[in-house]
């Protein structure tokens, strides 16, 4: 596997137009290995003796979830790979490649319009309870977590591991490209606070409804502090984001096509927001009180 300045070889199993050669000046090898060490420590601290516990991995086929799952498996942990499989999902084309590099069992979760319609009332209740606005984005993300948690509970899983937080720590969203290097650290700090105040609170509350605990290695304080000290050029350049995360994923054997998969917000890539919007539109036609449609 390649690090900074080296080329990644072609993986014929995942050959396709999305595959891109990795070749960056940053991050340097010691930074990549340090991130690996910190994420492994976070997993060990949170999972402990969980080799005897039934684990579930939230798997979108993106670089973040793939990296966390591969690190956990390399430490000896196994679980179920849970993927929401709506008909309009863009994720499934990537998650179907799981057997080529992951050992845990891949379990796609079919999602249809009636599933979303039945789940939305609980999603609204959770957002009310946590004091989070009932926007289309938040309803979609909450519904997604509930569907995964419900399936995990049916499988006897007690802990859900997620790759959430990487985008806020390592400049994963495209909007960061339009921010100056001097301003970006402050914006990322604000994003991290929002992650902790809203996103993790929302997801942990949703998981707890099914007696599940949420494990989020990227939210570990040591990982956050490390990310804050990293130069911006280790996170973002003119052609790529989350550079150090992609480099580490490549290093440990995540296929190039997934390492270089462009970032797309989960509510869109999963197809959940499309389904939620359809349910809300149908409710409005029935005369139900609409929720805010802020994104």
Account of the 3D structure:
The protein has 295 residues and is α/β, with parallel strands linked by helices. It has helices at 29-47, 63-74, 92-95, 113-130, 136-154, 166-169, 184-208, 221-229, 243-251, 256-259, 266-269, 272-285; strands at 55-58, 79-86, 105-111, 159-161, 213-215. Strands 3-2-1-4-5 form a 5-stranded parallel sheet, sandwiched between helices. Strand 2 (79-86), helix 3 and strand 3 (105-111) form a beta-alpha-beta unit. The chain is globular.
Estimate percent helicity.
40-55%
What is the topology, as strand order, of the major beta sheet?
Answer: 3-2-1-4-5
Oligomerization status of the protein chains: single chain
* Biggest pleated-sheet summary: 5 strands, parallel
| Structural class designation | alpha/beta
Q: How many helices in DSSP terms?
A: 12
The gyration radius over C-alpha positions equals 19 Å
Q: If you average the pLDDT, what whole number results?
A: 87
Percent of sequence in beta strands = 5-15%
Shape: globular
Report the count of strand segments.
5
Low-pLDDT regions: 1-24
Q: Report the span from N to C terminus.
A: 38 Å
In sequence order, what are the helices and strands, one letter per element?
HEHEHEHHEHHEHHHHH
């Amino acid at each position: 596997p390649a690090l900074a300045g080296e080329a990644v070889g072609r993986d014929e199993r995942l050959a396709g137009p999305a595959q891109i050669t990795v070749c960056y000046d940053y991050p340097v090898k010691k930074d990549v290995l340090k991130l690996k060490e910190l994420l492994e420590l976070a997993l060990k601290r949170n999972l402990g003796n969980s080799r005897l516990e039934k684990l579930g991995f939230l798997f979108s086929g993106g670089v973040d979830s793939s990296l966390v799952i591969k690190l956990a498996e390399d430490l000896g942990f196994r679980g179920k790979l849970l993927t929401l499989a709506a008909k309009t999902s863009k994720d499934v084309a990537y998650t179907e490649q799981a057997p080529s590099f992951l050992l845990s069992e891949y379990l796609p979760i079919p999602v249809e319009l009636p599933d979303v319609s039945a789940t939305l009332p609980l999603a609204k209740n959770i957002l009310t309870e946590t004091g989070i606005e009932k926007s289309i984005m938040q309803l979609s993300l909450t519904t997604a977590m509930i569907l995964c948690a419900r399936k995990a509970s049916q499988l006897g899983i007690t802990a859900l591991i997620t790759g959430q937080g990487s985008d806020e720590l390592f400049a994963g969203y495209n909007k960061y490209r339009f921010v100056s290097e001097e301003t970006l650290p402050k914006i990322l700090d604000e994003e991290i606070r929002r992650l902790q105040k809203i996103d993790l609170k929302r997801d942990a509350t949703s998981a707890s409804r099914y007696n599940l605990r949420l494990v989020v290695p990227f939210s570990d304080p040591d990982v956050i502090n490390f990310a804050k000290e990293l130069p911006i050029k280790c996170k973002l350049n003119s052609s790529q984001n989350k550079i150090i995360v992609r480099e580490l994923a490549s290093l440990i054997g995540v296929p190039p096509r997934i390492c270089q998969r462009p970032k797309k917000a989960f509510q869109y890539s999963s197809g959940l927001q499309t389904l939620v919007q359809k349910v809300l539109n149908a409710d409005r036609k029935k005369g139900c009180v609409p929720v805010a449609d802020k994104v």
